[in-house]
């Protein structure tokens, strides 16, 4: 949600800023803007409602019209105030000498606004960012020093922010601060870069600083300096990013989503390789010790969207293999329902971005309750990773498409490895079972590739069903867990109404929605349960719904079940890794056929940094 970029160097800033904003488009936005210190030392602002193309049209000829080597840019996903040009960032003080862009939400902005009004400030927009900018301006005027102004801002403000500020009096410097919103800084050959996420910097550098909460950044003369709120200088470690620009580009695919679907064999393999050493699971990087595994009383998993769905799979797998109670909860609910804990739980926060506000809040609640916390995250150095006791990094690489695919697949692997680790350490798995299951896991990447080779069958099915307005997914156990993910994918990018139901539950009310135009897709990968789900498919068929099936090789399905996509067989605990692939492809092709913006679906953001 919202993207920030900053540039200070030898090039014209506008093209660099526009390029960076393009790389952050995936985060979701509805307006954009930039500010550059021009050739005569004044800060010029250009903003536009809508996509970046609108902003590009305004700056004309790729930005060469505003000359200046220092600037900040922003893509805005509206929270306070409708998406229009007036509310778009950057925002400025009255004489345009203090200009800022901001991600996140200033919670006490109305209180601060009132105070500023009493001191003579007026406001032109509905945004909390204008308040933030004028608060910085107020303290700058009072203390005459940018670092002091920014630290005073941080002392007064409640909420989350990544804030980048230009001061007209310091035309060759950029100041920034963050709290609970991401910010990375990169340096390359005397140039300084600032961004909300690494893809915006990759073209220029792969060595970055991850700025921590409440650290102030000053970019100046090719250097990055960091300070705490007492304005004492800090030394931050430099982190080398091990993926290159190609990883964050489309690489010949029509959409990022299709590319990322095809990257799943690699995402799964890389995640496995990272945590398997000499044929055994090695969690030394995760820092989760055998003692902690042994002393865990139960497991609580939290996440949002697809991450929550990965948690649902994990619950089935862990309970079955480890005989330990596991509960999975929506992060947005966990925080507010005053959960009861014994103190010996392991809390698992799953998140691709590591920045989802609801998941962060749930994690903090778990920490407040005194339980140990494990992060399963894809983005290095993200808030959830930094605040958890243990971190399992999924190795999916950068995921750009809003609808997650490869990160979800890598999260499943995290869940399986955790289950196997708990099983073997706690003695619910024999060595033989453990080895057999590890072998099955290692075979998953090839099986996913096999399914991907058959993508044209799914494409064909999508074209036959493109006009359906209601699609149900049913299944039992892990098949139900895969169905809820398939249904979310469909909703997110095709905008088709869809529900996923535990197959046995459908008849308890919801079956009344089934009519002749309804499509019901059954997921049948579990031998023991397939017959039952097939029975439920018969029930909807006799109420005129069309039915289709995703079935694992070897699972018996009645002929009357209609069109079947057959996926390779694997151990029953891991089938979601395979059944989800045709479901992702189905959502993808329907989205393409319906002419939607596949990678940037309406109303959605990749990383939801507000509650
Ligand atoms: C957003 C996205 C979902 C995603 C969820 C959790 O709502 O639209 O696709 O699953 O956030 O994101 P996270 O980064 O925490 O995995």
Describe the structure.
- The chain is α/β, with parallel strands linked by helices and 611 residues long.
- Helix content is 37%, strand content 24%.
- It is built from 18 helices and 27 strands.
- An eight-stranded antiparallel β-sheet has the order 3-2-4-1-10-9-11-15, covered by helices on one side.
- A hairpin with a 5-residue loop joins strand 7 and strand 8.
- Helix 4 packs across helix 5 (146-156) and helix 14 runs parallel beside helix 18 (576-593).
- The radius of gyration is 25 Å and the shape is globular.
Q: Give the helix level as a range of percent.
A: 25-40%
Mean pLDDT over the full residue set: 93
The computed structural class is alpha/beta
- What are the bound molecules? 6-O-phosphono-alpha-D-glucopyranose
Radius of gyration: 25 Å
C-alpha end-to-end distance: 12 Å
Task: Tell me the total number of β-strands.
Answer: 27
Count, helices: 18
pLDDT below 50 for ≥5 consecutive residues: which ranges?
Answer: none
Biggest beta sheet attributes: 8 strands, antiparallel
Beta-strand share of residues? 15-25%
Instruction: Tell me, briefly, the overall form.
Output: globular
In the sheet with the most strands, the strands line up as 3-2-4-1-10-9-11-15
């Amino acid at each position: 949600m919202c993207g920030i970029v900053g540039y200070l160097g030898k090039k014209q800033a506008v093209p660099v800023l526009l390029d960076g904003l393009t790389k952050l488009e995936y985060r979701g936005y509805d307006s954009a803007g930039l500010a550059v210190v021009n050739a005569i030392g004044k800060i010029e602002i250009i903003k536009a409602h809508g996509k970046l193309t609108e902003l590009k049209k305004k700056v004309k000829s790729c930005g060469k019209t505003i000359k200046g080597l220092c600037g900040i840019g922003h893509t805005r996903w509206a929270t306070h105030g409708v998406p229009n040009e007036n509310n778009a960032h950057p925002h400025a003080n009255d004489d345009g000498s203090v200009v800022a862009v901001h991600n996140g939400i200033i919670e006490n902005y109305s209180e601060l606004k009132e105070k500023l009004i009493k001191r003579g400030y007026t406001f032109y927009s509905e945004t909390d960012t204008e308040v933030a900018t004028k608060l910085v301006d107020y303290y700058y005027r009072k203390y005459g020093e940018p670092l002091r102004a920014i630290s005073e801002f941080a002392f007064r403000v409640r909420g989350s922010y990544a804030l980048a500020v230009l001061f007209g009096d310091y035309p060759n410097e950029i100041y920034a601060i963050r709290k609970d919103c991401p910010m990375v800084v990169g340096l390359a050959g005397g140039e300084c870069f600032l961004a909300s996420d690494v893809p915006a910097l990759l073209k220029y550098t792969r060595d970055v600083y991850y700025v921590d909460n409440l650290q102030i950044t000053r970019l100046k003369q090719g250097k990055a300096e960091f300070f705490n709120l007492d304005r004492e200088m800090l030394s931050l470690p430099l982190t080398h990013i091990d993926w290159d620009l190609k990883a964050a580009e489309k690489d010949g695919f029509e959409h990022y989503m299709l590319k990322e679907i095809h990257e799943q064999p690699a995402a799964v393999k890389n995640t496995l390789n990272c945590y398997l050493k000499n044929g055994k699971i090695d969690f030394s990087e995760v820092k989760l010790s055998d003692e902690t595994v042994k002393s865990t009383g139960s497991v609580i998993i939290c996440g949002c969207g697809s991450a929550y769905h990965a948690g649902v799979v994990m619950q089935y797998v862990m309970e079955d293999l480890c005989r330990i109670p596991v509960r999975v909860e929506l992060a947005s609910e966990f925080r507010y329902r005053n959960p009861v804990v014994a103190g010996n739980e392991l809390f698992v926060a799953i998140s691709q971005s590591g920045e989802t506000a609801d998941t962060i809040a749930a994690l903090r609640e778990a920490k407040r309750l005194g339980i140990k916390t494990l992060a399963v995250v894809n983005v290095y150095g993200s808030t959830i990773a930094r605040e958890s006791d243990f971190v399992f990094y999924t190795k999916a690489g950068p995921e750009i498409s809003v609808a997650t695919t490869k990160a979800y697949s890598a999260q499943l692997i995290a869940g399986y490895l955790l289950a196997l680790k708990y099983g073997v350490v706690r003695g619910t798995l024999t060595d033989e079972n453990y080895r057999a299951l590890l072998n099955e896991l290692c075979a998953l990447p090839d099986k996913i590739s096999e399914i991907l080779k058959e993508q044209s069958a799914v494409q064909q099915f999508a074209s036959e069903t493109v006009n359906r307005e209601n699609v149900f997914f049913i299944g039992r156990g892990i098949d139900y867990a895969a169905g809820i993910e398939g249904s979310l994918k469909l909703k997110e990018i095709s905008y088709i109404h869809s529900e996923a139901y535990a197959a046995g539950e459908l008849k308890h009310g919801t079956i009344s929605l089934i009519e002749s135009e309804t499509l019901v897709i059954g997921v049948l990968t579990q031998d023991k349960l397939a017959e039952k789900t097939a029975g439920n498919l018969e029930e909807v068929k006799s109420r005129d719904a069309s039915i289709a099936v995703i079935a694992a090789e070897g699972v018996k399905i009645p002929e009357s079940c209609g069109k079947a996509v057959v996926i390779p067989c694997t151990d029953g605990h891991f089938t979601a890794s395979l059944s989800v692939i045709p479901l992702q492809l189905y959502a993808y092709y329907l989205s393409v056929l319906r002419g939607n913006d596949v990678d940037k679906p309406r109303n959605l953001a990749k990383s939801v940094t507000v509650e």
